[in-house]
């Protein structure tokens, strides 16, 4: 076991090392491309697409290494690089969208050149999104269940009562079995007792045998040796699995050395304060004092001391990092701008070429802890030095320059307004728990249905590039939809670093015909990231918190809980209703336009550090006023009906999921062809109508046939061509759609000019 554990550690360390090499190669390639001007649209996009796919491969391997390496300091280093790669992928996606003026990209030719499969371009969901906060999520889910149960919004599953006669029979069977086991045990004990008496009598008559004594000693000794080996194997197995083991010593009792590391971190930090604190303080004071004296010689007076908000004395010594790009590089840099995530890629340099020897426990490295804690100690001392030096500089300015230090500048008006809005007087005395409970009891904070993004089944489009080459606009596949939901919804919500530094997406719109899985994708975003789900649909908030003040109160409560317990998703179903051109008479009572003026303000209150996403779903987006609608939703994903390849996979998946068996009598290809125009929801309804409990019982002697599914399918409404064209026409009126039409017109005009 010990050798297998070390082999596993070395395997994932090797994966990590290889990934770092791939990352270095990718960065070198990007630098070379930056120095080359590329004006051709198609070539520039292929370069970006190749970068994007390479980062996806790095993402896959990094996630694998991060999931399996147990060394906590290594995991922390890989985690930072992983977040940096996520951010770089999001940046490249933005550049690709800006270049192609489309959310969907057809890069099967690039995938073929790189000798990859379409499955290799699927975006993995890092396991740490859920794993690192698993206990908190389980506790939150349990609390929500209790709140909903006490509020009567959810009922316990009824327990089926057993008939009186069946209960008696069950008790009788169990009691007879118990008596039989006791009787058998009693008879066995009598038999063994008689055997021992017989053996003792024979031994007394024959006398002691030296061979038997030697055998007995060997037996005891071999048993002792084997038990020691077994204990050691168990100990090694527990270490490999990262689980606490009673066989381990107190030093290694905590999983993965977390407890020991935390105690040692505190000890090292206190030791550094005692041994190096005074030297650090004096060094900082000398550096700051010297800097101010030199500044006075240059400008003739002492400058103002940097405020705490500006970083204090740290801002004095800040310089450009080597990673910052030179100005006016040109070339493809026009498409790939400098990324703030590149600096995160060098975190793992400290682990390269490190000889770990027989570091079997893989817990922590005290030297790395000391270096990390030295920075913390220096930062704490710097704050104290800033307070002291600020007063010294003030006295120097008064004594030498004869002036008082400048007053603090007033904050911007927008900051005052934002601060005033954040501190609602009516919510100041409320705790987050009480607000959470109230929102749950009002039905605004709802329970998330456990569904993963991989459950959104759909196949990759293999003809995208071919159709584009003949000037035919291909329809996006369901695999493309999965990828966009992961990029704009799941990855930013799961990674704090990526959300803060990557291109910020505050609102996401999922539009498409009824039954294409819009609500399922909303729940998948929440499931994959452990996010809260707030239902702000017009039908759900009708008659709740009436009036303008009530609406403001509700939204402030939602924002406060969403930010405090992030990540969070605010979902608005039928999101076209707040932007109705004309409110139908049947919906006037629910006042669907309540949120129209509040949504822009709601988004304005969200900052980069707030992992909160507004997701709207709409089956009729063309009923909304296009300008304010698109002003709220900066990212719009138009979900089409499934194509043939996706329908083929869907039929197999749904039939198997509902307990059906696929045989030669069931022609899946025929079903996929005949269900052209039907959405995923309609296919599910048809399968459920056929696979009843009675039909499942008949499955063994009566296999499923193709024609069984045709009748229920024919009774459902498909997506007609007119409805599909309406969605396409609406999308051309969105900002991205208009920009795409304009770019196409410009390219056509340029092509005509070349011909002339």
Automatic annotation (TrEMBL):
Leader sequence residues: none
UniProt organism field: Coturnix japonica (Japanese quail)
Protein name per the record: IQ motif containing with AAA domain 1
PANTHER family in alphabetical order: IQ MOTIF CONTAINING WITH AAA DOMAIN 1
UniProt xrefs under InterPro entries: ATPase_AAA_core, IQ_motif_EF-hand-BS, N-DRC_Component, P-loop_NTPase
Encoding gene per record: IQCA1
Pfam families in alphabetical order: AAA, IQ
Keyword Acyltransferase: no
GO molecular function: ATP binding; ATP hydrolysis activity
Keyword ATP-binding: yes
Domain ATPase AAA-type core: 508-623
Lineage, uppermost ranks: Eukaryota, Metazoa, Chordata, Craniata, Vertebrata
Entry keywords, A to Z: ATP-binding, Nucleotide-binding
